[in-house]
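User: I'm writing a tutorial on reading structure tokens. Could you give me a worked example: one chain, its sequence, then its tokens, then a sentence or two explaining what the tokens reveal?
Assistant: Sure. Here is the example chain.
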Amino acid sequence: MTVSPPTLQSRHQFADGAFSSMLPCIAAIDGGGTKTLLAVVNRDGSLGPVLRGEGSNPFDKTDWQDVLQSLIGQLPAATEALSLGLAGYEETRVLGREQSDVVGNAFAGPFSICSDVEMACTGAFAGEAGALVLSGTGSVAWATDGRGGQVKIGGWGGLFGDEGSGFWIGRQALGLLTALLDGRNQADHVFFAPFATAMGLPIEKDACGTALLEWYGTLRHPRASVAALARIVSDLAEGGLEPARRLMREAADHLCAHIEAAQRHFPETSLPWSYAGGTFQSRFLRENVAVRHGAPVPPRLPPVGGGLLNAARLAGWDVDDAWIERVSVALRDAGLTS
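And here are its predicted structure tokens:
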């Protein structure tokens, strides 16, 4: 199976004025269900090539190996270390070995692999104590006490969990839509037309039901496509539509439960919370979590930045607060904030 080659998102110049594949650099890959992002950074913290490929979650994408191999194959020759945060990593021992083998066969230098959420937590707190809540296609939290203790909360996938995720929100919205279509729900009729219209469905009910089934039947990646509906629900919630606001409040409640479970694991340590994942682009969602847990700590680095921090340490680079800040600014200027 072949995949489309990754697209070059941006190319930033190094301090000497031009990116050279001969300059020492490190790289990180953030592999999720919707996209796989590769970023290269020079020793001084300036940003090199950034590549974006398709999702590489093995539970969603049959071509995940091709995606990783294609990205790794475009690394500069002078890449001294590579760190990857991969969705699904070590969900099973067999899968973890497969992911390690794919990377080891494609990259000759030193590398490390962790889960995508662990890498996001490393970036958010730069190694300090905190709870990182990730809500994208799925949902999971990763917390650390800053002294080596770590715990994962959630991350059970769409069959067993993923409450508060984009997929969960999209699935709840579709359930509400179908209940409105067949009359099981007669209280939330104001949700029907705005949501159906935003999905591109007709608002005549018989035609809508037929079109909905046709929409689902033609999806290449149903889980990711359902998760994408969370943006519609968020927009409707921020526009004041009460059924949508209720769904987003319920999602926020589930994500709060992740934070509270993490805090119970480290009762002696105060855990600030931060966030990652596309679902948290919703201001309404963030504000509803903040009602119970206070304002989130802005992530010091985005998820791929956590991987860059890991790779720099793996390469033996001198990593200090100033270097972390330079990388943070470079990634932010490039629009790589989640």
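What the tokens reveal: Residues 242-265 form the longest helix (24 residues). The chain has 13 helices and ten strands.
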